[in-house]
User: Fold DUF4360 domain-containing protein from Cryptosporangium arvum DSM 44712.
Amino acid sequence: MVCRRWGRVAFAALGVLGVVLATVQPGAAAVRSDDPPPGQFTMEVKRVHGSGCPPGTTTVVGTEDKTAFSLTYSNYTAQSGGGIATSQRRQQCVVTVGVGVPHGYTFGVTRTTFRGYADLAEGATGRLDTQYWFVGLPLTGLIRRELSGEYRDNWQATDDVPLPEVQWMPCRRGMVPLNIETSLAVDAGRMNPDTTSLMTMDATDSEVTTIYNIAWREC
Assistant:
């Protein structure tokens, strides 16, 4: 399997985050983005698996205007150093979301924004890996971002997908599963191995941790 790496990504200390649908200029390909359709847009967590998302700690919510949905984790932390067990250095989660859309329409993700908090000693590193895919379709490209210590602040990683490269949900009746896979990893490094460093998937200033902006089109 070959995964592309997306560019145009910001990974920085968090300022103010707005749920804004990315503005995409039409290209040469015959691909368009329609207005959100009338009817119900439903999302429901069907299954969670992994050390980063124990049962009952993950929720998904779609916005009323059908331009985005958020996935929130409440117990997702990787940590290393200071005698922390090796098993805590990398935490991973796969969430399967059941998606229901108005008949005759499909959607795809155009922007992802991941948020959290990190407390990394000098010499330590934290890493985010993530990808998503509709069941039955290929995986999207792997997104990997790193933070280097000394760092103690909220963090944010944003990835934009050009409209011609958007993976669209298959057009069929009923709910279509969407898999979202993430992992956090922390390496304490050699400079301060006795100091605990950590990276979480929940920011200190908001309950929302990941936002997926979406585009619509008719089937």
